[in-house]
Amino acid sequence: MIYLKTFIIGFLCIMLLSFGQSWSKAKQSGEVFTGQHWWTARQDSAGIAPDPVQLRDTAIVQIYAAPTYGWRGLVAVHPWIIFKKAGETQYSRYDVISWGSDDVVRRDYAIPDGYWYGSRPKLLVDHRGARAEAMIPRIEAAINSYPYPHTYHAWPGPNSNTFMAHIGREVPELRLDLPANAIGKDYRTLLHPIGLSPSGRGVQVSLLGVLGVTLGVEEGVEINILGFNVGVDVMSPALRLPFIGRLGYDKVARDKS
Fold this sequence. Notes:
alpha+beta; seven-stranded antiparallel β-sheet; six-stranded mixed β-sheet; 21% helix; 27% strand
């Protein structure tokens, strides 16, 4: 019994400290508490994506994540993927959006590297060249095979993070490591509680995304309790924490060729 109490107290302390850090970061950046409406929030380019015209002959795949709009940005992130084949001069962008249509998988909903309603995106994956070119057909197939194209639940999923985790599982060469605050990435139905981790390079046991554990090359060790994840990334040393996602070595999966 004493071990259970210690675990609960420790988990609650981690939650409080992580939330405090998330609140402080949001206040300093000014990206969450601006008081502006969603339709006036910043959505212009963050200047991260390479110029697709200058790199016409290079295939590019990138994945981004940004805090969700408003107070929800203290808790979770919204991810999306962009890509272009060699010879193309424009990116295709895909993410899952909950409003405006029964089809939640959207193409080119916003500009490739735009601020997400006031929040600056962070680059998670950046692959270029021949290997990126080889990934793109598999990414397109994963988008088309997403199991929940007409369903969205902010918690525990399926949502935008569930969508990106599906792509990561189908294309493990991406080496996608969704942060701990990507709520919904661990969503699995009760009929399939065991399978690949969101990176496709590990194993996961998860009950509807509210209770589970993940062991993976990219994720390290991560425990999920009610959608709040705590863990340790061993390969790229960092703590995996709720609300703030990651504390430690910054990580971007790159493979230029």
